[in-house]
Amino acid sequence: MADKETIERLKDQALEMRELVLKLSAKTVIHLGGDLSMADMMTALYMYKMKKNLDYPGKWPERDRFVLSKGHGAGCLYIAMAMAGYGSIDEIFETYGAWGSRYGMHPCKNQNPGMEVSSGSLGHGLTLCSGLALAAKERGDKHHVFTMLGDGECNEGAIWEGAMLAAHYKLGNLVALVDRNMVSLSSPTEEQYGGLRLEPLGDKFKAFGWNVVEINGNCMEEVVDALDNIPDADSDVPTVIIGHTIKGYGVSFMEGTPKWHHGMLTDPELLAQALEEVKQTRYK
Ligand SMILES: Cc1ncc(C[n+]2csc(CCOP(=O)(O)OP(=O)(O)O)c2C)c(N)n1
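A: This is the predicted complex of the input protein with thiamine diphosphate.
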């Protein structure tokens, strides 16, 4: 169990991550709504939970693997990785989205040491991670494979193929986190496709044979507790942590609205307001 000091450090880092997301959105188009919602889970994964060796990024066999299945959250991933020691915040700000930059709008593994796969086309992360987890299990490796799914992304059929596969192959080393912010690109998830609801999402994963943990994904104590309690890698049942979050978390005019799914925050007054308001997330 993490001590109070660790939790406080992680809360500081999650706030720093959100501030960097907002500042980056002043320079370039990013998917800021979903970046702000998953920042606590990304912080806890990169700055607390995952085993890594910065001397051998992406090469140390014992490292935990992470795949950002909701690859449009690249801005947050780059910032998380740079804060964790892979890559450079300055370089992100100087080059994001520029021709030839390794910081494109979606993550590119070949240009970013420490990144396990390229992503951006939704729906592939869970099957891909099932493959990584199955290979690790067959080798007798002891690391975990983590993936972050968007909730709107869970409309993709391949997510459920992955869910079925992971339970069938008893991939206890696989942990999916769902950024359950209730909003997809242009509408609430429960209203998409004429009301094709995702709920009860936890029961659906249970029916597929998974451990299901539901938490407030914007509460660092709950996120860390959930990650502390994942089963050992040599166990038999995959785990999904459904993190109930708020899209655009911390910024009043962004919260819960598809309008800020992606875009730029160019108005200096709005940016200043957002940076001021987001400080409150540190104390919630
Ligand atoms: C296969 C595929 N279809 C469509 C898109 C376009 N797209 C980008 S983000 C997005 C919405 C994703 O919603 P959600 O998973 O809820 O993401 P979040 O709210 O966490 O940002 C869509 C449809 C895509 N990237 N890939």
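The chain has one domain: 4-283. The first strand starts at residue 65 and ends at 68.
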